[in-house]
Amino acid sequence: MIATAQKHLVQPWPTAGDIGAEARGGMVSGDGIYVTDSEGRRLIDGPAGMWCVNAGHRRKELADVLHEQAMALSYNSPWYTMNQPSVTLSQRLADYAPGDLDHVFYTTGGSSAVETALRFMQFANNVKGRPDKKMIISRQGGYHGSTYLSASLNGRPRDHDWMDSASEQVIKLSCPNPFRRPEGMSEQVFCDFLVAEFRTVIEKTGKERIGAFIAEPVMASGGVIIPPQGYLPRMRALCADNDILFIADEVVTAFGRLGHVFASQDVFGITPDMITFAKGVTSGYFPLGGVMISSRLFEDLRRSNHSDAMFAHGLTYSSHPIGCAVALKNLDILEDGLLDHARAISGYFQASLKTLEDLPLVGEVRGLGLMACIECVADRISNNPLTLDLTVGKRIDGHCQDLGLLVRPLINMCVMSPPLTITPSQIDEMVSILRTSIERTQD
Ligand code: PMP
User: Is this prediction's pTM over 0.90?
Assistant: First the structure.
């Protein structure tokens, strides 16, 4: 965010409404699930920064390894050399990734991971002599990044409707949000509808023109949308039948957020062709992202007749040794009880938040693992958000901040994804603040 000094405030750049009440001062420290601002106010970090501080703040092990790696080898060029932490990390990630997703390309974050995946898709199709197989299917409500093409995939028009040239390459399917399914339609029929919509798009566009389908297993920034049962396996099967690459965007859902290192297989039973990741891979202690790639796709890239070498694509900070060293230590922490804790605590987290559904303003509390969303509605009968004052998320956030909790406001929703270290009493504290804040908002 661009920080704008305003009197004594540090105000986040106002990105058209989804930033909540201004923080009263810059954040200066963190500890566990808490952050403290320059005025000494301590707040629960409800969104774990931006879905990323999975291991919590002030982890000495992570800070130490960052320092140690900087002293040992602070940088090497990924174009000419490899570094030991990245080699070890690749092996460990491949062990966790489903199927034959045995290859990793490191990036600097989520957007660059998504761009990289799409460059792989285009390049592999060029090599196979089918350069027109480049349309990308994404979904309303999805979020995939802030760079030119990744932003074009996003489900929010404001992210891309002013830059049409990239958007011409993208087709968007309906948002798989069971809460917003047509009235009277069962979840099963809704799922059939979503799959049929994809099949129709393939038929109309021609599978020879569609290169990839990209999906977050659980839509994060769109409001923690958990697709209907069976949706992801059926979409995956359609991709396989039509030679369309399935890219699982696990920038949020990986590294423990849903209780596993990767969620695609372990939570949803699917093996994608590529998985993009970032954020929780280093718990936010160093910028790093990447793409897991199937062996089949890797061979396509290797067979390149465009050059003798591999596909020419790289970022200065790809496989940064400090990022990879931090990621290795972060994996140790996850393996050393944090994944187990995340899985064990998620039931209490979800059940406690669910109690807020008795408040008239709350239409639905939904979530999975340690990500959750409170969606507010104008009235509980129609569940209609449209007549609602759409600053409601911001207003809840404002009250929460007064009481010591950061949430992520999204128009009529508030999203939470706390550090995975959260305890039952901290969950109680969070839910109690939310209850008071929502009550104050609806009064
Ligand atoms: N994909 C998803 C699912 C995301 O949530 C985000 C960021 N919120 C991105 C991609 C982009 O990641 P970054 O901001 O690190 O570029």
Answer: yes
The protein residue whose alpha carbon is closest to atom 14 in ligand 1 is 110
For residues 413-424, give the mean pLDDT.
97
Nearest CA to ligand 1 atom 10: 144
pLDDT above 90 for 156: no
Q: Is the pLDDT of residue 295 over 80?
A: yes
Q: Is 6 a residue whose pLDDT tops 70?
A: no
Residues whose CB falls within 8 Å of the CB of residue 197, separated by 6 or more in sequence, listed in order: 173, 174
| Best probe residue, ligand 1, of 138, 279, 286, 373 (max atoms within 8 Å of C-beta) | 279
Which residues form the pocket of ligand 1, taking CB atoms under 6 Å from any ligand atom? 109-111, 114, 143-146, 216, 220-221, 249, 251-252, 278
For residue 380, the CA-to-ligand 1 centroid distance in Å is 32
The rounded Å distance from CA 144 to ligand 1 centre is 5
Q: Tell me how far CA of residue 171 lies from CA of 137, 211, 212, 238, 399, in angstroms.
A: 5, 11, 11, 16, 39
Q: Which atom of ligand 1 is nearest to the CA of 50?
A: 8
pLDDT in tens, 206-256: 999 999 999 999 999 999 999 999 999 999 999 999 999 999 999 999 999
Interatomic CA distance for residues 190 and 193, integer angstroms: 5
